Structures are given as structure tokens and as C-alpha cells.
Amino acid sequence: MGLPEATRFEVNGRACVVQAEADTPLLYVLRNDLGLKGAKFGCGLGQCGACTVLMDGHAINACDTPLWSVAGRKITTVEGLAEGDRLSVLQQAFIDEQAVQCGYCISGMLMAASALLATNPQPSLEQIKVAMDRNLCRCGTQARILRAVQRASRVLGERSAA
Fold first, then answer.
1. H/E segment holding residue 61
2. What is the pLDDT of residues 99-122, one digit of tens each?
3. DSSP class per residue in 62-128
4. pLDDT tens across 29-52, in order?
């Protein structure tokens, strides 16, 4: 038996080559092989959203995404949201709204919200709720999280109008 086949993809703008079994969950590769600890292991079944990352701009659950499916794709993790050494508008909005309690779900929340705002920069509250419904917060900061997404939307709207 030889080494597993290499899988090539991009993470946060950098080319990656990973040698792992094709059915290895992307989450394991991100955390264990690439050292990106932002995406969290929650349920392992794609039901809680703690592991949400972006694949080609779309929110996916990394815990149930096999490595073979990311070959040639662009993955963005919460570590890739910052704009250089400055927090993104969305990250800053989460701080400003005090949307974090324990913090376990927040990277997944940020990624789901990022995917939404990339396709719909001025979503309604109902659209935000729908986009975030696969991400669970067990601490009860859901209302603050929704306000943070609304705040980021307003700031982005003001920037585009200027």
C-alpha cells in the first residue's frame, strides 16, 4: 500500500496539496493537516454549522464534505475573512453587537453570514434568518448574531453608496 493520492485545492488564497484518504472529512484536513482551527467539530453530521466554511463562495459543512470533493476548489475559512491585518466588516459587527458568548459557533456563523452578504448585500431580517438556519447557537446569542449581520449589511451598504 502506498500513500493516498494528493488532493490539490486552495485555502484562503493559498494553494494546498494534501495527502489523505479521499473520503477524509474536509474539517479534519483543515484542522489537523493545515492547522486552521477556526472551523469547529460540533455534531459531525452537518446539522449544527460549527464547521461551516465557504467552497467557491457557498457555505458548506466541512464535517461531512469529503476531501475528494474539494479538488480544484477554493475554500475560505474564518481565518481568511480578515482584510489583511484588519477584521472584516462582518467580524467587527459581531464584536460591536457582542454576538459572542462561548464562541464555539461563531466561526460557522460568520461564514454563513459571509456567504449571504456576498450574494445579497442588503438582506431582510427574514432572509438572514433563512440563511443562518443551519447554524445553531446553544448560548442564546442568536438575536445578537442577527443584529450583527444586519449591522454589517448597513456598513457595507454605506460603503458602496459612498
1. strand 58-61
2. 998 889 999 999 999 999 999 999
3. GGG-BGGGGTT-EEE-GGG-SBTTB--HHHHHHHHTT--SS-TTHHHHHHHHHHHHHH-SS--HHHH
4. 999 999 999 999 998 998 899 999
50 φ, ψ (degrees, to nearest 5): -65, -25
CATH code of the region 89-161: 1.10.150.120
Angle at the Cα of 39 (from 35 to 42), degrees rounded to 5?
A: 125
| CATH superfamily of domain region 6-78 | Beta-grasp domain (3.10.20.30)
**Residue ranges covered by each domain of the chain:** 6-78, 89-161
Distance from C-alpha of 107 to C-alpha of 160, rounded to nearest angstrom? 25
Q: What is the pTM of this model?
A: 0.94
